[in-house]
Write a structure and sequence with these properties.
By secondary structure, this protein is of the alpha/beta class. Helix content is 32%, strand content 28%. The protein has a six-stranded mixed sheet, sandwiched between helices. The protein has a four-stranded antiparallel sheet with strand order 2-1-4-5, covered by helices on one side.
């Protein structure tokens, strides 16, 4: 695993209106690894992703991506640096078919996957190219939401709860896809409540509670930390 930092978050605070959600979040992501943010509902995991992406109006601290400080940048400028987010709500356009949804995001950097390579990763979509977004199953919509950002050339993929509400066979397929993306050189920051799924793909874990990181450990130390994880996550 490369030791070069791609994302370095320090002292990140964020607000929705007058409500402070993040209280000094600290973690990092190295190039080529899968890092998972764990925590119960309301811990601040999604807000962390949105803050990194510049989608939260009020945020302070430091979010350095590939050596560039992005805390003061707009979301479109952060995207052009090579950061992409796949939101929990997926954002599939109902009025567009699968091909149109896939081709919608612009290419921002070289190195994005071509359409055939994307469809090799998601063979289900190849059969549904002319289907409207609303005609897809939940699993197919999730595949489409992930597939869509692979064309852009982004190197850091932030996936928010990609397995929520999906059947086990689809969850397994998404896990295999994440492994393939990692081998292809992508770096992935994953927010996930399904710890069993996260344990099959992640290199490192950061546990969040009340808007801050309270613990961190590597996958190699997973078994030694299971009791603590059960306490943190209530599983």
């Amino acid at each position: 695993m490369a030791e070069t930092l791609l994302l370095d978050v320090k002292g990140l605070e964020a607000w929705y209106g007058e409500s402070r959600i993040l209280h000094g979040v600290d973690f990092d992501v190295r190039k080529g690894e899968v890092v998972t943010l764990l925590g119960r509902n309301g811990a601040g995991k999604t807000t962390t992703l949105k803050s990194i992406m510049g989608m939260v109006a009020k945020r302070v601290g430091s979010t350095r991506y590939d050596g560039v400080e992005t805390i003061g940048l707009s979301s479109d400028r952060i995207a052009r640096l090579g950061v992409a987010i796949c939101p929990e709500e997926r954002g599939v356009f109902a009025s567009l078919d699968v091909r149109e949804n896939l081709m919608l995001p612009p290419k921002i950097l070289p190195g994005g996957l071509e359409l055939d390579a994307i469809l090799d990763l998601f063979p289900n979509l190849r059969e549904r190219m002319t289907s409207q977004g609303t005609k897809l199953s939940g699993g197919e919509q999730q595949m489409l939401a992930i597939a869509r950002i692979l064309r852009t050339g982004a190197k850091l993929l932030m996936l928010d709860e990609p397995t929520e509400g999906l059947a086990p066979v689809i969850i397994e397929q998404i896990g295999l896809t994440i492994e393939k993306l990692k081998r292809a050189g992508f770096t992935i920051l994953l927010v996930e409540q399904n710890f069993r799924f996260a344990s099959t793909v992640a290199d490192r874990y950061f546990v969040m509670e009340h808007g801050k990181v309270i613990d961190a450990f590597a996958n190699a130390d997973l078994s030694a930390n299971m009791d603590k994880l059960h306490a943190y996550l209530g599983v």
